[in-house]
Each structure stands twice: as structure tokens, then as C-alpha cells.
User: What shape does this take?
Amino acid sequence: MIYKGLIEKYRKFLPVSDTISVISLHEGNTPIIKARNLPLKIGFNGEIYFKFEGMNPTGSFKDRGMTMAVSKAVEAGSKVIICASTGNTAASAAAYAARAGIKCIVLIPDGKIAFGKLSQALMHRAEVLEINGNFDDALNFAKELSGKYPITLVNSVNPYRIEGQKTAAYEICENLGEAPDYQFLPVGNAGNITAYWKGYKDYNKAEPSKYVLPKMMGFQAAGAAPIVEGYPIAKPETIATAIRIGNPVSWKTAVEARDESNGVIDKVTDEEILEAYRIVAATEGVFCEPASASSIAGLIKYVKRGYFKNNKFGKAVCILTGHGLKDPDNAVSNAVKPKKVKANMKDIIDAVGF
Ligand code: AN7
Assistant: This one.
């Protein structure tokens, strides 16, 4: 059967009617890739898997929630959707709105969104407003506007977003034939950790001995780590602009996921994020954006601090939430520059070191 997106596949696990007109770009069904080189390189004596969510149609996991949120908005007669975004939600909302034939308004923090994401929102003809403030400010405006006018808010406060995103945990359980021991993932607005926990609990409820619940291991950027610090951060800062968020909407449910799973929510520095970002691209051939690499940075940090001496190694899945092509500026500025070489054979041979 041809794959037609996650609503068609998981219809019976989702709050959708049989008659809903599905707005889909065939999101979901993303690869789970077993690491070949990373375990040895970092000293992890178990199996590491990447769930490459950058392979979704707009290049991030947001498409899972957006197919649900936009299909439900259209069913309810909505003609306009709105979101605040650090970039990926905007790109996804703009694409699904274009497909649905409705209008999309996005509020983004001024100058702090990756270039690929901006190009997507613009090409899909969203109304893009750069706010002279950060994501948290933008979200407050988006909420207020959606309360005053007939506009559907498609940030992860919209419960259908979480419902769509939980299907990634279903796919992992199906692909591995069991749940992993550890689920590593970045934490920004904390919708995704909430969604994964919900997904794993669904499978656990159906077959508790087969799908044993994983420990949820969430990582925030050190300059934007409100859940770790225990208070909102007024001026969040990190190179990983996707998770530059100071007051997460799903704070409470993220803490529940951490505590119920006996997991952790911790922070990683920008240096640790960039190191993981380079390692996974250079040693595994998998290119993710900086925010996504915080999951791997977290795994590396916990190997170094000896966490797995007291907890078994087992299977660790790292969610790579967005594609590396989203953020070409960070890629080029954190990699070795191309060599300038004269157009003659001798210079070229010298340059490659033969
Ligand atoms: C690549 O696009 O919040 O913890 O506005 O783009 O569910 O918020 C993006 C978040 C991780 C964090 N990785 O997920 C937005 C936005 C990537 C992201 C996160 C985001 P949540």
C-alpha cells in the first residue's frame, strides 16, 4: 500500500472522524538509522539510533503535528491559521496552509531564525512578521490575536499538534520491535517530549511487557534552560535558535514525562551542541540542525559523566528533529572552509596532499 501520511496510517489512534478531509504532505514514516561509528567514538557500549525527523516534507518533525492541526482547522471552517515560531513551525504551518488553500500568519523573532526556514515560510506565501522581541513575546501576541479574531492558533498549545507528534514514538516501537531504553531529544517549548511520552504510554498500555517505557532524556541549551533552572528565562540565548525559548508552554507535561519515566531534563552548552553537530555529520553522514544535535550532545555528556555505569547501556534513540540544510549559515561557519586553489593540475594535486 502506498504511504499517505500519518493520519491515514494511525487514524484509529488519533482524534479524527472518518469523513475528515486530510491535509497531508505524506509526513511521518521517517528513517530510524543505526549509528555505525558513534558508539565506539564516544564510549557507549550499547546501540544508538537516529530518528531522522529532518526527512519530513518540510524538513522537521513539526509536519507531524501540522497535518493534524491544519486538517482539524479546515474541518472546523477556519480560513486563517497563526503561529509564533523560531522557524520550523512557521515553515511547516506555511506549507500546510498553502496546501489547504488558507491563509497563514507567522510571528518570528527578529533576525534569529535560520535562513532555510525563513525561505520556506516566504515561498509558501505566509504573512511573515518579524517581531522586535523573542519567541516568548511572539507567542503571547499570537495567542492574543487568535483569541480576538477567527484565527486558529497552531502552536503546540493546540492539542492536535501533540496528537500528531506522538506518532513518532509509535514508529520507533514498530521499527525496533520494542521501545528503546533511552529517548534522547531536544527540549524547547516542550511539546515534543510531551508527545513522545504520550506515544510510548499508548504502546505500553497495549502490550506492557513488549513496550517497556523508556527513560525520557530531554536537553535544553544552557542559555535557554528554564526547566533545568526552575524559572523562566527572560532573555534566552543560544546558537541553536530553534530552541531559543525562555518560557515553554508544555513545561508541566515535560516535567511529568521526566519524572514518570525516571529520566532527566538537563542542559548542554553551545560548544557541546556544536561538537555533536559536527560529529554526527562527519562520522555518520547524517546532517541535522544545531538544536537537533542537543540530543546527541546530551548522550555524550551522560556517557562522560558515567551515567551508564549505574544504568544499563541498552538502546538509545536520539531524535534529530530538523534537517541540517535548514541552517546553512551555522553549517558553513562551523566547518572547515574550502581551499582556494588555482585552476591547474599541480596546485590541485598539492592541495589534496598526494
Ligand atoms: C529543530 O519552530 O518551537 O520542545 O517555533 O525546531 O517541542 O518545542 C521549534 C522547536 C527541537 C523543540 N528541534 O521542540 C518552532 C519551535 C527543532 C525545533 C525543537 C524545535 P519543542
Summary: The beta strands are 32-34, 47-52, 80-84, 103-109, 127-131, 152-153, 182-186, 215-221, 264-268, 315-320. The chain has a mean pLDDT of 97. The pocket of AN7 is lined by residues 60, 85-89, 156, 186-192, 242-243, 289, 291-292, 321-322 (CB under 6 Å).
